[in-house]
Sequence to fold (357 residues):
Amino acid sequence: MKTAYNFNAGPCVLPRPAVNSAIEALQDFKGTGVSVIEISHRTKEWEDIMNETRALWRELLNIPDNYSILFLGGGASMQFLYVAMNLLEHKAAYLETGVWAKKALKEAKGLGNAYALASSADKTYSYIPKNYTIPTDIDYFHITTNNTIYGTEIHEDIDCPVNLVADMSSDIMSRPVDIKKYALIYGGAQKNVGPAGVAFAIIRNDILGKVSRYIPTMLNYQTHIDGESMFNTPPVFSIYVMHETLKWVKAQGGVSAMFERNKKKAALLYEEIDRNSMFIGTAAREDRSIMNVCFVMAPGKEELQDEFMAFAKSRGMVGIKGHRSVGGFRASIYNACPIEAVEALISCMKEFENLHK
Fold:
């Protein structure tokens, strides 16, 4: 099998045990003789997987009992609309830190009074806004904790005087989170906790039922809470791989262990970017993401971008091309990305520098 170091931003690298288990389940799900993509979601075997997956979420993130955990189709982009549909009654404020935060705000504006409380658009979203005051007369304050395109991250659970809603698509399970500080956390699975095809939502139950508008059945969080994420057929394969991925996280020592590994990987890669004369980081140092490391060629070296891309590919690097909107390079080093992959990328960068001395 060809050696490849997977730095794709999503779908992401997955733990090999989860992939192997998924392969087995495609052939025979839990000894039923039926594939996991054929199994009825009303069977006991599947209900056990749903219950175990919820239990893993609750255990790994210490989610209190007054929060519901949902697994839904449509990805995080659909959650942009879910959030506003279920929570926006009077007005809401958003922290605009990148493309996805801007898109979430757009959906809210389509339903009511929503605005950007602070934005880093003035510097191409290369930093996290500071020194803003959260008003107390809003229904909720929305943040995107990690910005995959620009490589910035909110590293702490902020104190918020109103309901705090967070899109944690790309850093969930990468660090411990104080769930009690949030009213709602959501995201797509394909960054850190599974394959594309399913979104998660962690909802404090008391925030629902407060809006006066009609909420379409399928966009109503309460529908899916009452149906235990099976009001309609759930994305069974994606949830199964999520289940296996979370089992792997637990076996590795849980979220705290993931955090220590992730900090180490990020520190090694940022250290090389800062040392290497060929490259320069793009995010403000204090806001650098430990999930998505973004960098470009150093001033005067821009003409070498395509050459480095080809060079890195020849050394087995996969998915390091930056997002099409910003260019450059991006190494996504999610939970399942091994430190050996980061070390291989660093060696590649050093070798490229030596070629051009």
